[in-house]
Amino acid sequence: MSTLVKTKTQFRRAFVPTTAIAKSVEFDSDMMHVFLTDGRIISVPIIWFPQLQQATSEEREKYEIGGGGLSLHWPEIDEDLAVANLMSGADWKST
């Protein structure tokens, strides 16, 4: 998807991301932050993911990025998350 930006004499296409590709993951006391290759950051409450919330900081640091950046996996606690689901912002308790 793109939008047109009119310049003085020509049209240019503005960049609009169509996918979210994970680059890295960080945690603070309440949130998980997923850094994307295009510069965006997805931040979600860690309470949404009980296995991650109960994991040690060492276990949280041992993650794998799979599917070319589309998924996150923590092998020591057997937790898998899709980046697209994080972007939807749906609270896991609401389903």
Element layout with pairings:
Blueprint: E1 3-6, E2 11-14, E3 22-27, E4 31-36, E5 41-45, H1 50-54, H2 57-61, E6 64-66, E7 71-74, E8 79-82, H3 83-88
Keywords:
95 residues, alpha+beta, NE0471 N-terminal domain-like, three-stranded antiparallel beta sheet, 38% strand, elongated
Could you explain the architecture of this structure?
- The protein is an alpha+beta fold.
- It has a single domain, classed as 2-Layer Sandwich (NE0471 N-terminal domain-like), CATH 3.30.2020.40.
- It has helices spanning 50-54, 57-61, 83-88; strands at 3-6, 11-14, 22-27, 31-36, 41-45, 64-66, 71-74, 79-82.
- The strands form 3 sheets. A 3-stranded antiparallel beta sheet has the order 3-4-5.
- β7 and β8 (79-82) form a beta hairpin.
- The longest helix is centred in the last third of the chain and has 6 residues, at 83-88.
- The mean pLDDT is 85.
Task: Give a summary of the structure in a few sentences.
The chain has helices spanning 50-54, 57-61, 83-88; strands at residues 3-6, 11-14, 22-27, 31-36, 41-45, 64-66, 71-74, 79-82.
